[in-house]
């Protein structure tokens, strides 16, 4: 394949914040890592809330055009892919419009703040027949994909248990502003939707469908300073910290037990109030024939124990991911040279554009995002009602659920 024969696909990115930066980097770098690329992503148009913000984002992220109205991205016949990197409460309207316009879609997580919106998004892309992906990029970390490979090969036998955490500390400071991430009407939930859903996705990816949950949720900081302006910056104190405050109506912490359809059990903890933890995503999976352990802050490493190991080599040992492992052929030439957050987004872009150009299915898609939202809603209901909730009961009116 020659460079001239590789198709070009125009991207319309909606949202120029942190995730807009991550996605723009991925579009620019993907052909550098995976060559020949399935397609060349062309950074065509970026939309922000004002024309000025959009123009600044276009200059920064390398887009050819900009607009203060996201609908112009949807209406532009030259746009092939719509990338949604906006606050959670806007996902459904944009995605449904994009699907109806025949655009392929990448949407940031969580898919939507409510089950009803997630279901509507899933039904829209299914009816339109467009390629769709929800951006749970951590499953594309090579060590995580390697863990799935070992599980599928039976290297640890039948999975017995899963323990997952996602711990951060950027919201532990009470002087942090009341950004949209602390407002239910925009975010839908707090630590659960923002970071806990990543662990739900990893659990589903590695172990299987979750059938029931038994949860607790808690809000430690009940009010925060009203934000005085500027973009949402994780962990930033606000210059209005001594001024008026507003109520926080989402969770700071969630803990839940998990039951899986295949008989495995598990647990999940997510909080943004854990001093000293930066991006501490971990899982440990025990099987009848071995154990797998992963810590995202050491993302090149997967700790493994196989019961088949000889007696003088028994114990958890470290596999450093590299060219021999998933996605390794497109990344760096030797193990442990270093995989970062940006590389997971590059892999995400590669898988998305491969699906568009080949017709092969891509996961996680909007169906996965919808199922994750069902589980998240079950967690909320369980915490409120202080009992175990079957995931399949979600969507059933509360007065009849469980009957």
UniProtKB/TrEMBL annotation:
- Cite the Gfo/Idh/MocA-like oxidoreductase N-terminal domain residue spans from the record: 9-136
Q: Name one GO molecular function term.
A: nucleotide binding
Domain GFO/IDH/MocA-like oxidoreductase stretches? 145-292
InterPro entries per UniProt: Gfo/Idh/MocA-like_OxRdtase_N, Gfo/Idh/MocA_oxidrdct_glycsds, GFO_IDH_MocA-like_dom, NAD(P)-bd_dom_sf
Superkingdom assignment: Bacteria
Q: Does the keyword Cell cycle apply?
A: no
Pfam families registered for this protein in UniProt: GFO_IDH_MocA, GFO_IDH_MocA_C3
Give the UniProt keywords, A-Z. Oxidoreductase
Identify this protein by name: Oxidoreductase
- Name its species: Deinococcus metalli
Lineage, broadest ranks: Bacteria, Thermotogati, Deinococcota, Deinococci, Deinococcales
